[in-house]
Design brief:
The protein is of the alpha+beta class. It has 2 domains: 185 residues, no CATH class; 209 residues, no CATH class. It contains 8 helices and 15 strands. A 7-stranded antiparallel sheet has the order 3-4-15-8-11-12-13, covered by helices on one side. A 6-stranded antiparallel sheet has the order 2-1-7-14-9-10, with no helix packed on it. Strands 5-6 form a two-stranded antiparallel ribbon. The termini are far apart. 32% of the residues are buried.
Length: 431
């Protein structure tokens, strides 16, 4: 009986013997799948560390604001998250360690951090699955090429083997869980949840960030040192109707510099340059990041508290001052008396006299200002979109202007991580 079984096994192996090219191609495919799984595990582990650091920093901000209730909610979420990572994952949840039911009910700031985690985690899963599908498509291309070569060379059996494997892959790709099954078959194990972060490592990373060493140096001007999401944002082209170009195409980039909302001072000696800024003038965007180290600093007889970084633009004619300014941040202000805050200031070029300014707290992930100089008379309106708040100013007509747009912080220890985008004004603006 044993000899019969052995003979059947040998016969099956002989019948299923595959061409050497197929074996090599399949081996490369499996190795690449394992690499995809390993990279995914590394990324999700780093994401877990980032999330715990975000919770740590948010709790510190709330403690500094003496928000005892908010501080306690964040501490509870940190404890819940660490316990969830150590528990058995729910196979029916896409992000089992942070489900929609776990979202904060009372703290909007915490909810924003949680949603950002869920979005990023989900995006990594989709990116991983996309990598598996692209790899499978390359495998199919290789199999089809080998089949054609075998057929032209009179190797009918080999051509049939290549076709059979290609058909198997194509049928498998029709399943919704193709990526998961392909990784599992190749031995590429993707963890359902990241491992609990090393607390000592987290403290070290958080300490480096608080000293301004967290995510690279913006002063180097090297786009590649910025986070991938920021790079993608900065490189996205400015979109507008080429047959009807907006007023902002006439703006000319001047540069960047420190800005103080207290006295509306821009790029002058004595203004603390605590934050970093990276401007991409071609697309009219900028990225501001850093930690505010001082609650206030003296300049002459005044104490400056609202300080940050800004980018300046030169306008030949005041009638070109029509735009929308969009500020984005994943670390919104906890209240209207704290940072970050988005700023716009307008100066006369010749005298450098302040003509108009408006600063609004960034209370949500997106904060928009609508700026419009009336074409036929000397009236400028700056409106905080989504609210009833707006301000009106009188501006001289046909006058060269300097427009400064930036982000400022207020309290010591505030972490600023924000983007600025100047956009064409929406048509028929009436908000």
């Amino acid at each position: 009986m044993k000899r019969l079984t052995a003979c059947l096994v040998l016969a099956a192996a002989f019948v299923s013997a595959s061409p050497p090219e197929l074996a090599r191609l399949s081996d490369v495919y499996r190795r690449e799948l394992v690499k995809i799984a390993e990279e995914f595990n590394r990324e999700t582990a780093a994401l877990a560390e980032d999330y715990v650091i975000e919770l740590r920093n948010l709790s510190k901000r709330m403690k500094d604001r003496q928000d005892a209730a908010g501080f306690q909610v964040v501490r509870q979420e940190a404890s819940r998250y660490m316990k969830a990572l150590a528990a058995e994952p729910d196979p029916f949840e896409s992000v089992p360690e942070l489900t929609p039911e776990d979202l904060a009910k009372t703290s909007e700031a915490l909810k924003i951090v949680q949603r950002a985690y869920i979005d990023t985690r989900t995006a990594k899963i989709r990116a991983r699955d996309g990598q598996v599908e692209e790899l499978a498509k390359k495998l199919l291309g290789g199999l089809d090429a080998l089949r054609s070569k075998a057929q032209s060379g009179g190797r009918g059996e080999d051509a049939a083997a290549f076709k059979k494997e290609a058909n198997r892959i194509r049928v498998a790709m029709q399943r919704k869980d193709f990526a998961f099954r392909a990784l599992k078959e190749a031995g590429g194990v993707c963890a359902a949840m990241p491992p609990p972060p090393d607390v000592s490592k987290i403290k070290d990373r958080a300490s480096r960030f608080s000293q301004g060493q967290g995510k690279g140096n913006l002063a180097t001007g090297d786009l590649t040192t910025l986070p991938p999401a920021v790079q993608s944002f900065l490189l996205k082209p400015l979109e507008y109707d080429k047959s009807w170009p907006p007023e902002i195409v006439n703006w000319r980039y001047e540069g960047t510099g420190p800005y103080s909302h207290d006295d509306h001072l821009y790029n002058l000696p004595g203004i603390p340059a605590e934050l970093g800024i990276f401007a991409h003038p071609k697309n009219m965007k900028a990225y501001v990041r850093g930690v505010k180290r001082m609650a206030s600093e003296p300049r002459g007889n005044r104490m400056l508290a609202w300080t940050g970084r800004a980018v300046s633009w030169r306008l030949k004619d005041s009638r070109d001052l029509v735009c929308s300014i969009l500020f984005r941040t994943m670390r919104p202000a906890l209240n209207e008396s704290g940072g970050p805050a988005g700023c716009v200031a307008v100066y006369d070029v010749e005298s450098n006299k302040l003509l108009a300014s408006y600063t609004v707290p960034m209370l949500s992930k997106e904060t928009e200002l609508y700026v419009a100089k009336h074409y036929s008379y000397n009236r400028l309106t700056i409106k905080w979109v989504g609210s009833k708040k707006k301000r009106g100013f009188t501006l001289p007509d046909h006058t060269p202007l300097r427009v400064v747009v930036g982000v400022v912080g207020y309290a010591k220890g505030e972490e600023i991580d924000a983007t600025i985008e100047i956009l064409p004004a929406r048509q028929n603006e009436d908000r």
